[in-house]
C-alpha cells in the first residue's frame, strides 16, 4: 500500500466516471487520431495507430467494460501505456490531472458496475474517490 | 600433415569442389551416352577427373585418388581414339560416378573412416581398358580404306585456341586440312623416332598442327602402332598419300582424308561451311570460360545471407530517415539544413538501392545448375520404368535466387518423376496410340519481368477430370454434390489436395497426384503460382510462376493499395494476377457462390466487406475485381477503389493483437496513416465461406 500512496497518478474519465493510472505505467498521452480498424480481432480492440513510425494497438475500454461507446470530442485522448513490455493505447474521454492520494482503500466488490478485481483500490481525494485500474489485467485478461 | 587438412574450411572447399566436378562429370557422361563423344566432352571429362585426382591427392584421400586415376587412364584412351565409346564403357563410368559420390559422402561423415569399396569398380575400369584395346587392334586390320569409314574413325584431336585459329586461317586461304594416319611397320625399330621423322617430313610439305598420340611426349622405346597427324597443306589428300607412301620408309599403311572439325558421329553429316561457324563459336566459348574461372571467388552462403540481412535493415532505417526528414520539413519548411538532409537522404536511398541490387545479383545463379541434375535422373527413371523419354531442357541460362532454386528442386523433381511415371506411356502403348515411341519431357525456364516462369510439359496420357472426380469422391475429399458443381479446372486442381497424395490407390486410379500437395506447399511458401493445363490423351503442362528474387527481407514488399469501403488495404503485388472491371450483370451465382468468368475461368468472388462487417460500397455499374493467385488457387477480391502500387514496409501487429485471420501485418502510408496488409493465403482459406461470397440479394436484383 505504501508504494501506491507515494506514487503519482494520471486521472482520466471514461463515460463520466473518474479513473486513475499509475504515472509510471503511462508512456505518453496524445490527441485522438484516426484509428485503422483491425477486424475480427479482440472484441475491444479499436485498431492501430502510427505513433511516430511505430504501429501500436489501441484498446477501447468503453467496450471492455460495457459502458456504451465513446463519441470523440476535442477532449478525447489516447493514453499510451506500457503493459507487459508492449505499448498499447487506450481511448479515454478526458485526461484531468496528475494527482497523489492521501488515502487508498481496497476496492469494493463492484466499482461503477465493473468487477472490483480489475482495481488496485480506490483513491481518496478532496474532490471525491477515484478508482485505480490494474491496467495489465484489464488489457490482457 | 593430415591435421592441416582437417580444418573445416579446407574440407568444405574440397567438398564443394568435388561436388562441382562430379556434377560436371555426370553431365558429360550423360552427353557421351546421348550423342557420342565430341572432343570437347571427352576433354572436359578428362579434365574433371584430373582435377578430382589432384585435389583428393592434396587432401590425402587415397581412395578417391586411385579411382580417379584409373578413370583418367580410360578417358585418356578415349581421348586418343584408342578406346571406343560403347555401352559397357558408359555403364562403368556411371558406376564410377556413383562410387565417387559414396566416397564423398563417407568423407563428409568421417574422413578417417571411408568404407566404400573401390576395388570392384577399378577392376572393371581395368578390364574395359584392356578389352577394348585388343578389340581395337582386331578391328583395325578389318578396316576398309574408304573415305566414309575414314571419317567415322577420325581420331579425336584436342585443339587449343591457337590451333583452331590456324585451321580457320588455312581454310580461309584455301588450304586443305587433312588427317594423315600412318601405321608403322611392326618390326620397325624405335617406332617413336620413326614417328618423329614422319612428322618432320610432313612439316616440309605443310604444317603439322596436332597429332595423336603426341610423338614428342611418348617415351622413346614405347610401342607406337598408328599415329594420326593433323596437317595443313596445299596438297590434296591423294597427293599427300602418294608422297608419304613413296618417300617414307617402314610404313605399313597410310590413309589421308579431310579433317572434320566436329568429331562426333552425329555431326559428320554437317556441311563444311556449317562446321566452320560452329568451330568459331566453340573457340569463343572456351575463351570466356577461361575468363570466368579466373574471376570467380567462392563465398560461404552464410556470409551472403548476413549481408542480405544487413542491407535489409539498412533499407528500413533509410525509409525511417526519409520519414523523419519529411516530418521535419513539414514543421520547419524554411530551414535549409532540412533541405540538405532530404538531399542526403535521397542520395543514400539510391546508393542503398544499388547495394541491394548488387547483393541480390550475387545470389542469382543460372537455373542450369538445377537443370543439370535432371538428365541423370530421367535416364535412370526411364530405364527402370522401361520407357523412352527425350528430355528437353530450355532456358538454363535464366537466373534466379539460389534459395528459390533450392526450394524449387524438390517440386520439380516431383513433377518430372510424375510425368515419367504416370504421364508418359510405355513405348508399345504409345505406338498403338499413334504417338512417337519416345515421349518428350520438356522443362523450360523463362524470365518475365520480376518473375520466372518454369514449365514442365509431357506428351503423355494427360489427366482425366472424371477420374479425378471419382477418386476424390471415393477418398471423401469432396462430396458427390460438391464435385458435380465443379468445373473441369476445379476438378483437376483437386490433385493438389493433401488427401490425394497419401493414398497409393487413388493415385493408381487417377494416374497422378503422388505428392502434389508437396509441390503446392513449396510453391505457396515461395509466394508462387501454379497452373495445370492438361488434355486427356495428349499430355500435361505445369506452369509455375515464381519471383526471381527473394524479398530482401520479409519486411518490404511491393503492394497494391485498394479501398474496401473507406478503409485502405495493401495487397502483395506478387499475388495480383490481374485487375478487371465486370458489369454487374456478368456476375453469376453458382450454388450461392458469386462467380465471375475471367479469361474463360469461373473465378469465385469475395466481398471482404461482409467478412469485416462493414457495408458494401456504393452501387456502381461495374464491379472492380482484383484477381489474386496463390499456388493453384485463384479468386477475385471485390474492391471499391484502386489507389496505386508502392513499396511498403511490413510491420507485424505485435503480440498483443496476435494473429488475425486474413491480415498479415500493417504498414505506414505516405500520409502517416496505417493500412492493413491482406494475407492472400488466409483469404484463400475463407473463400469457401458462403457468408462472404454470396451475391447480395438486392445487389443481384438490380
Automatic annotation (TrEMBL), chain A:
Signal sequence residues: none
Coiled coil start-end: none
Pfam families: CheW
GO BP field: chemotaxis; signal transduction
Entry-linked PROSITE patterns: CHEW
Gene3D superfamilies the record matches: CheA-289, Domain 4, SH3 Domains
InterPro entries in alphabetical order: CheW (IPR039315), CheW-like_dom_sf (IPR036061), CheW-lke_dom (IPR002545)
CheW-like domain ranges (all copies): 6-141
Cellular component GO terms, alphabetical: cytosol
UniProt protein name: CheW protein
Organism: Acetivibrio thermocellus (strain ATCC 27405 / DSM 1237 / JCM 9322 / NBRC 103400 / NCIMB 10682 / NRRL B-4536 / VPI 7372) (Clostridium thermocellum)
Amino acid at each position: 500500500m505504501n508504494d501506491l500512496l507515494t506514487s503519482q497518478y494520471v486521472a482520466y474519465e471514461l463515460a463520466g466516471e473518474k479513473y486513475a493510472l499509475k504515472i509510471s505505467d503511462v508512456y505518453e498521452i496524445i490527441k485522438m487520431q484516426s484509428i485503422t480498424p483491425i477486424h475480427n480481432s479482440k472484441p475491444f480492440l479499436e485498431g492501430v495507430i502510427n505513433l511516430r513510425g511505430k504501429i501500436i494497438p489501441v484498446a477501447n475500454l468503453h467496450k471492455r467494460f460495457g459502458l456504451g461507446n465513446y463519441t470523440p470530442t476535442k477532449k478525447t485522448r489516447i493514453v499510451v501505456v506500457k503493459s507487459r513490455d508492449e505499448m498499447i493505447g487506450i481511448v479515454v474521454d478526458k485526461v484531468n490531472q496528475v494527482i497523489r492520494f492521501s488515502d487508498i482503500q481496497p476496492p469494493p466488490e463492484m466499482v461503477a458496475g465493473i468487477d472490483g478485481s480489475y482495481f488496485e483500490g480506490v483513491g481518496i481525494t478532496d474532490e471525491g474517490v477515484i478508482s485505480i485500474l490494474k491496467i495489465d489485467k484489464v488489457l490482457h485478461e | 600433415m593430415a591435421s592441416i587438412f582437417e580444418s573445416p574450411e579446407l574440407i568444405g572447399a574440397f567438398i564443394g569442389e568435388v561436388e562441382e566436378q562430379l556434377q560436371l562429370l555426370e553431365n558429360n557422361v550423360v552427353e557421351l551416352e546421348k550423342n557420342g563423344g565430341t572432343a570437347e566432352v571427352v576433354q572436359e571429362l578428362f579434365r574433371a577427373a584430373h582435377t578430382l585426382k589432384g585435389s583428393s591427392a592434396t587432401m590425402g584421400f587415397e581412395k578417391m585418388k586411385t579411382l580417379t586415376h584409373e578413370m583418367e587412364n580410360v578417358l585418356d584412351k578415349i581421348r586418343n581414339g584408342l578406346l571406343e565409346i560403347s555401352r559397357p564403357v558408359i555403364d562403368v563410368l556411371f558406376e564410377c560416378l556413383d562410387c565417387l559420390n559414396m566416397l564423398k559422402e563417407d568423407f563428409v561423415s568421417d574422413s578417417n573412416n571411408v568404407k566404400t569399396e573401390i576395388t570392384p569398380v577399378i577392376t572393371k575400369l581395368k578390364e574395359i581398358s584392356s578389352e577394348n584395346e585388343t578389340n581395337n587392334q582386331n578391328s583395325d586390320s578389318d578396316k576398309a580404306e574408304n573415305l566414309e569409314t575414314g571419317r567415322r574413325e577420325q581420331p579425336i584431336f584436342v585443339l587449343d585456341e591457337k590451333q583452331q585459329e590456324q585451321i580457320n586461317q588455312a581454310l580461309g586461304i584455301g588450304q586443305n586440312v587433312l588427317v594423315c594416319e600412318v601405321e608403322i611397320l611392326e618390326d620397325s625399330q624405335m617406332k617413336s623416332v620413326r614417328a618423329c621423322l614422319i612428322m618432320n617430313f610432313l612439316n616440309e610439305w605443310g604444317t603439322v598442327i596436332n597429332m595423336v598420340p603426341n610423338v614428342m611426349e611418348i617415351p622413346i622405346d614405347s610401342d607406337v602402332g598408328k599415329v594420326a597427324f593433323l596437317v595443313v597443306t596445299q596438297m590434296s589428300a591423294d597427293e599427300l598419300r602418294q608422297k608419304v607412301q613413296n618417300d617414307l620408309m617402314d610404313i605399313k599403311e597410310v590413309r589421308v582424308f579431310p579433317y572434320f572439325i566436329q568429331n562426333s558421329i552425329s555431326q559428320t553429316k554437317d556441311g563444311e561451311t556449317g562446321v566452320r561457324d560452329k568451330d568459331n563459336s566453340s573457340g569463343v566459348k572456351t575463351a570466356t570460360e577461361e575468363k570466368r574461372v579466373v574471376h570467380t571467388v567462392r563465398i560461404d552462403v552464410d556470409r551472403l545471407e548476413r549481408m542480405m540481412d544487413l542491407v535489409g535493415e539498412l533499407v528500413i532505417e533509410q525509409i525511417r530517415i526519409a520519414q523523419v526528414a519529411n516530418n521535419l520539413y513539414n514543421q520547419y519548411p524554411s530551414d535549409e539544413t532540412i533541405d540538405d538532409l532530404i538531399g542526403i537522404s535521397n542520395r543514400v536511398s539510391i546508393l542503398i538501392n544499388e547495394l541491394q541490387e548488387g547483393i541480390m545479383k550475387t545470389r542469382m545463379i543460372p537455373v542450369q545448375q538445377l537443370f543439370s541434375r535432371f538428365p541423370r535422373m530421367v535416364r535412370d527413371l526411364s530405364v527402370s520404368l522401361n520407357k523412352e523419354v527425350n528430355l528437353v531442357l530450355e532456358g538454363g541460362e535464366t537466373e534466379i535466387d539460389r534459395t528459390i532454386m533450392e526450394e524449387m528442386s524438390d517440386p520439380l523433381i516431383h513433377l518430372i518423376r510424375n510425368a515419367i511415371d504416370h504421364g508418359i506411356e510405355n513405348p508399345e502403348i504409345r505406338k498403338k496410340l499413334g504417338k512417337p515411341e519416345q515421349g518428350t519431357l520438356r522443362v523450360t525456364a523463362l524470365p518475365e519481368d520480376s518473375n520466372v516462369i518454369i514449365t514442365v510439359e509431357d506428351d503423355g496420357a494427360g489427366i482425366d477430370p472424371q477420374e479425378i472426380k471419382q477418386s476424390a469422391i471415393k477418398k471423401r475429399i469432396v462430396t458427390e454434390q460438391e464435385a458435380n458443381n465443379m468445373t473441369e479446372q476445379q476438378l483437376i486442381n483437386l490433385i493438389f489436395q493433401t488427401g490425394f497424395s497419401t493414398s497409393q490407390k487413388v493415385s493408381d486410379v487417377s494416374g497422378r497426384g503422388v505428392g502434389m500437395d508437396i509441390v503446392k506447399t513449396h510453391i505457396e511458401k515461395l509466394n508462387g503460382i501454379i497452373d495445370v493445363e492438361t488434355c486427356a490423351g495428349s499430355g500435361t503442362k505445369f506452369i509455375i510462376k515464381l519471383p526471381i528474387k527473394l524479398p530482401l527481407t520479409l519486411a518490404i514488399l511491393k503492394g497494391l493499395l485498394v479501398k474496401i469501403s473507406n478503409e485502405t488495404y495493401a495487397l502483395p503485388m506478387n499475388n495480383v494476377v490481374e485487375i478487371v472491371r465486370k458489369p454487374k450483370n456478368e456476375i453469376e451465382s453458382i450454388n450461392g457462390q458469386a462467380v465471375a468468368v475471367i479469361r474463360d475461368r469461373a473465378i469465385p468472388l469475395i466481398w471482404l466487406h461482409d467478412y469485416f462487417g462493414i457495408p458494401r460500397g456504393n452501387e456502381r455499374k461495374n464491379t472492380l475485381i482484383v484477381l489474386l493467385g496463390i499456388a493453384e488457387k485463384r479468386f477475385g477480391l471485390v474492391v471499391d477503389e484502386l489507389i496505386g502500387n508502392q513499396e511498403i514496409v511490413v510491420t507485424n501487429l505485435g503480440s498483443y493483437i496476435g494473429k488475425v485471420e486474413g491480415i498479415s501485418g500493417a504498414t505506414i502510408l505516405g500520409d502517416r496513416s496505417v493500412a492493413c496488409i491482406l494475407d492472400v493465403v488466409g483469404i484463400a482459406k475463407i473463400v469457401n465461406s458462403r457468408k462472404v461470397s454470396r451475391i447480395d440479394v438486392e445487389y443481384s436484383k438490380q
